[in-house]
Design goal:
about 280 residues, alpha/beta, five-stranded mixed sheet, 16 strands
């Protein structure tokens, strides 16, 4: 009987010790703010509440609207997560250089990264593959899910051997649902036209902030974006993007606001190099 009681006591002691250790190592979700810096076109630097840095669609060195200080890629600081929505030059241009500089993977459409692997643009270990509805955990506390975008994608690349531009298979274009350590969700729509499943994406993932193209010609125009906001997505906040860097992207935030009218959604029209906090 004494042996049984001793074993029971030992079991209780070990269980309490285990729970104490779990409690000691468990970390509460960060309560800091999220900083979103617009770098022009679809490029953003997102600094998370836990201090992680996420870069999206980096076209910086040759983008005429990128602030001069960020044409130096090292000025972005240490990058933890690199996301590319598709292979067009104005989204992919500086991604390989940033991947090499920071020794991190370049997350992009699966078939695009397969082309980049065969072309030797980056080592295979820096070109992971995933696709629509695929979910990755690219840094502690960060969750990214790929969603549909209504667009096209070819991998545009200058062949170093010939000096000529080439196009290769670019896979399906993507948008990203980026969930941060504190549960804050950002929907980077990538390049997209209107499609009905925007409503499903909004209802299913419930983004807090939407980064939305408004330039027209290649993506939604302001009236299209206003319809998506009003009828389908209904987010708390929208930051317009993908306008002003290309003469064909003529849409403006003023036109978006005019088309939107009275709305519960806040439209934050940043200038290139400006930040917003959430």
């Amino acid at each position: 009987m004494r042996i049984r009681l001793s074993l029971c006591a030992l079991g209780v002691f070990l269980a309490s010790l285990f729970l104490a250790n779990v409690s000691a190592f468990a970390q509460p979700a960060p309560t800091g703010k999220t900083e979103v810096l617009w770098l022009g076109q679809s490029a953003f630097r997102i600094t998370t509440p836990g201090g992680k840095v996420i870069i999206t669609d980096p076209w910086l060195r040759t983008n005429p609207t990128t602030p001069a200080e960020y044409k130096n890629l090292e000025a972005l600081g240490k990058i933890d997560v690199l996301l590319v929505t598709h292979g067009h030059f104005d989204h992919f241009a500086d991604a390989p250089a940033l991947a090499i500089l920071n020794k991190i993977p370049m997350y992009a459409p699966g078939d695009m990264n397969l082309s980049a692997t065969y072309l030797g643009i980056l080592p295979p270990e820096q070109l992971p593959r995933f696709n629509v509805n695929g979910t990755i955990f690219p840094a502690p506390g960060i969750k990214v899910t790929a969603v549909h975008a209504e667009h096209s994608s070819v991998l545009t690349w200058k062949n170093p051997a010939t000096g000529k531009d080439e196009t290769h298979v670019g896979g399906a274009p993507l948008g990203y649902i980026i969930e941060l350590e504190n549960g804050f969700k950002i929907y980077h729509m990538g390049d997209t036209g209107l499609f009905g499943d925007m409503k499903f994406i909004a209802e299913y993932y419930k983004p807090d902030l939407v980064l939305m193209p408004i330039g027209g010609n290649f993506t939604m125009a302001p009236a299209d974006a206003a319809y998506a906001i009003r009828e389908w997505i209904k987010p708390k906040t929208v930051i317009p993007m993908h306008y002003g860097s290309n003469p064909l992207g003529k849409g403006t935030p003023a036109e978006l606001l005019q088309s939107l009218g009275a709305s519960a959604t806040k439209v934050l029209a940043l200038k290139q190099g400006e930040k917003a906090e959430f």
